[in-house]
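User: Some background: our group keeps a shared notebook of sequences we're curious about, and every so often someone picks one and asks for a predicted structure to add to the entry. Today it's my turn. The entry only has the sequence so far, pasted here. Could you supply the structure so I can complete it?
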Amino acid sequence: MPFKHILLPLDSSSLAEEAVTHAITLARNSGADIHLLHVQKSSSHADEHCTDPVEWRIRRAELRSYLKGLSEEVSAQNIPVTVSIVEGRPAEQIVEYCEEHEIDLIVITAFGKGGISRFDFGSTAQQVLSGSGRSFLVVRPVGAPPTGKDETTYQRILISMDGSPRSEWVACQVATLMRGQKVEIILLQVIAIPEMPRRMPITREEHATREKFIECNRRAAEAYLEEIARQLRNGIKVTPQLQIAQNIAEHIYATAAREKVDLIAMSAHDWQSGAQQVTGTVCHTVMCQSDLPVLVFQDLPEAQLQALRTGANICEIRHPALSNDSSTQQ
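Assistant: Of course. Here's the predicted structure to add to the notebook entry:
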């Protein structure tokens, strides 16, 4: 399964709690445990110049009670849960906790106790996403009161494909995660229109060359998406979509909104970006502009990347209840 240890950082705000049902759903589907973590500022990191020891202990007790209540909700779903309260700067302690406990997925809201702002992310979320090196699900909170649901349902998932081994691996991980669920996976690839920046209009010959280039990419992408969809089917509904556009990221989050998907999944790095970057430009733009939850997978091990580059199948997903000659969902 894709994930074994899921970290859910909480700051006792209702905005941060909007990530709870997402963590529960992903933990149930992947058989992972959940780590509930709160970082309490020590006196040296508090906003006030000094913190009253009695008030600090009262706050500590309140936090224990708060996390205990949430842990009971998680445990009621038959999910192993660990509760931790640590001291220090929130982002630093969250990243350190990930390293010490081998966390492979962080579920976090874009904003927390500081409230929703004009910026793309709150300061703690921004630092955690850029410094943890882990896969993450970022939820953009709406500030609505809890619905009372125990988990979130992903009925339609859009996966951003770009022809790279990374995106193929993401598709395999999502299909594995959702196997046995009633879900539709949309494989979306956006073919970029080549830019030809200049002051004068392009010539007729240049236009014809560009159109020929786009058509070659379109034909290749069409066959590519059908092959990926074939590998992911059997018990899972998979729908390939191919689009041609100037702005790839804009079409990803616009298509997700139009198709009313519940989740966007993508690789942190596209075929153009290197692994030394936290996220590629496309991924970062989608995270910032989409109102939907975005599940971002960090790079897979280099050995697996090399195997995919040499032509190995991403994965042959087969539902355990179906034989190879069973009819597939279209």
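Suggested note for the entry: Residues 317-330 have pLDDT under 50 and may be disordered. DSSP finds nine helices and ten strands in the chain.
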